[in-house]
Amino acid sequence: MSGDDTHQPVHGTAAGDPYVALPPTAVDASPSGPTRLIVAWPGFDPPRTAMALAAAIPMTGVPVWRVYLDLPRTSPGGLESGAILQTEAIEAYCTAVEEAVERLPVALADLRRDLGLPEGPVGLAGFSVGGAAALLATARNVVPVSTVALVAPVVAPSRAARAVEKRSGMHRSWTAEAAGRADRLDLGAAAADLAGRDVATLLIGGAKDRVVPAREITGLRDALREHGAGPVEATTFRMGHALAAEPGTEARPPITEAVRVDGVLTDWFRERLAVTADAPDPQARQSETTSSAAASEDTDGAPAKPADDGTWSLDTGAAAPRTPEPRSASPAGSH
What we know:
This is Prolyl oligopeptidase family protein. The protein is of the alpha/beta class. It contains 9 helices and 12 strands.
């Protein structure tokens, strides 16, 4: 573990995987409950590493530790989603997701030791493949989770592969065993495991995403709501799949899409994990937001609704989350 003072990122390993931990530095908010830690995983597309994800979506305004944890057994250069048609790639995907979920309890124990944090529920977040890991860890209840946010999560590996097949004109070479492993990681099928858990969930997609089309985000939202998983909100941006420029392995200044996503994630976690001067009762604020969303049912097939901040809300009757100006510079220069 490294980090010279309380305002610098901490680097270490948890359950054998490298992490970057950003300390709580928000000056206008403090934790409102027992959740003092958010764990976020990167994807196979940029940002591909914990370091790159921390630079892309630092969530500086959230007054808890944000820990960006590398996926297990991924190469330093990453693996793009376009390779999903190869058996080796889908097996690497399945291994990364399965082991990330399995290792989470040990990883949290290591993080709490390194950062001096007490026991308690955590927030989870993830991009692409990391988003799949975050939701499956929540569904399988491997650790107590208070809220989860997913950015362009791979909802169903088989459907993602089908989209690549149509786009490339190539055919997948999956073995039967690899196909079976992929099917077990379908997030829609995991929705039933979240029934009655009351875990607040945010889904973020891209209107131009060809890996995880917006309809995948809509379908997952509907499945979670159908099973009574808890308050679920969804929004899309006019963006593709990636949240960083290639190669997406190093800390770099965030691109425009990442800044927008970071603003929505920051607001989401602040509303649920923080108390601020302008919102002294976060529980009441969350209840009001949930009631408003529940009162307005979405229309299947309705076009995304543009907002002034560049987001496209899939919750057609409810306002998209507000995107604030970035609260501070990216931590890229600190890595």
